[in-house]
Amino acid sequence: MAELTPENWRRVDAYFTDTLVGHDETLEHAVADQDAAGLPAIEVAPVAGKLIHLLARISGARRVLEIGTLGGYSTIWLARGVPDDGLVTTIEAEPANAAIARASIDRAGVGHKVEIRIGRGEDVLPTLTGPFDLVFIDADKESNALYLDWAARLGHPGTVVVVDNTARGGDVADPAVTTAQIEGVRRGLAMLGADPRFDATALQTLDRKGWDGVAIAVLTEVVEGFDDVGEP
Predict the structure, then answer these.
(1) Does residue 178 contact residue 107 with C-beta atoms inside 8 Å?
(2) Closest C-alpha to 97, from 46, 42, 50
(3) Which of 44, 121, 142, 206 is the most buried (most CB within 10 A)?
(4) Are 172 and 114 in contact (CB under 8 A)?
(5) How many CB atoms within 10 Å of residue 147?
(6) Within its chain, how far is the Cα of 52 from the centroid?
(7) Tell me, what DSSP letter sits at residue 82?
(8) At the top level of CATH, which class does the domain 6-219 belong to?
(9) Do 63 and 81 contact (CB within 8 A), yes or no?
(10) Domain-by-domain residue ranges, the chain?
């Protein structure tokens, strides 16, 4: 058995990417454009992009909500996963990021399936009308519980909810780490475990982005009584 090292897990990730995802000039162009504009390199890895794409297809999603557009890389994956008359609504706080994303999304040929709402999630989410069939949460981690609450409000029983970046290099399980981001991830995970609206699990991931994780949930019912920090 190979030793678990960054070099080896990145080799496996490259093998999975080459074998199961392949190279896509449109997606690679989207990443290149966001890099050239100085956006942080925090888009999902190709294997994770393919995962959310497949989840959209498996769930039969027609309406998708994405919280955190960045340069549009994950948005393109999601838009490719919905039918031609489907719609991905994606929220981006920074207008400059949204402009880069719009150009990449249009170039990918899925612009007619994507609407970008510019503004902070906490401000935009109350203006949306559901239901959404899949919700992908990949924005500021401090607000994960707030975003999960809105995912439940805007979803329906059977809605798939995906939360990215849930392991944070192992820090999520280290009680000595109490940064705002890590505490936000913990609140979100605690909410997924305690809130009866969700049935969830989480997996650690090792890919080109490093050691992290993803939580996947299904919305089971619509109930009131849980606040935005996941406590009754």
Answers:
(1) no
(2) 42
(3) 44
(4) no
(5) 27
(6) 8
(7) S
(8) alpha beta
(9) no
(10) 6-219
Closest CA to 213 of 138, 159, 135, 113: 138
Scanning the structure block, which residue is given the tokens 């925090």? 42
| Cβ contact 70:101 at 8 Å | yes
Residue 14: in which H helix or E strand, if any? helix 6-16
Whats the size of the chain, residue-wise? 232
Q: How far is residue 104 from each of residues 43, 57, 107, measured CA to CA in Å?
A: 14, 22, 5
pLDDT in tens, the chain (232 residues): 889 898 998 999 999 999 999 999 999 999 999 999 999 999 999 999 999 999 999 999 999 999 999 999 999 999 999 999 999 999 999 999 999 999 999 999 999 999 999 999 999 999 999 999 999 999 999 999 999 999 999 999 999 999 999 999 999 999 999 999 999 999 999 999 999 999 999 999 999 889 999 999 999 976 554 454 444 3
- Say how far apart CA 182 and CA 76 lie, in whole Å: 28
